[in-house]
Fold this protein.
Amino acid sequence: MQDGFVSVAAMTPEVRVADVTFNVESIIGRVDEACVEHGAKVVVLPELCVTGYTCEDLFWQDALLDAAEGGHRRDRRPHGRV
């Protein structure tokens, strides 16, 4: 923080529909980039970037919901330098 300001980044990760593992890796990579390379302290991402936007009926399948919950838990782990 400098002079009461915080650096904020808005990032859009590459996502694949219903591919939570790929999407979480992409999110972590973008957050690393924003924080380490650009000094961001807050990173804003699009809603549904963990599952992808066009899942439609897939949102009612337990496999996707379980993977998304697991992806959110994994994303809370420390990311090395971040």
Observations:
- The CA atoms of residues 6 and 41 lie 6 Å apart.
- The chain has a mean pLDDT of 82.
- The chain has two helices and two strands.
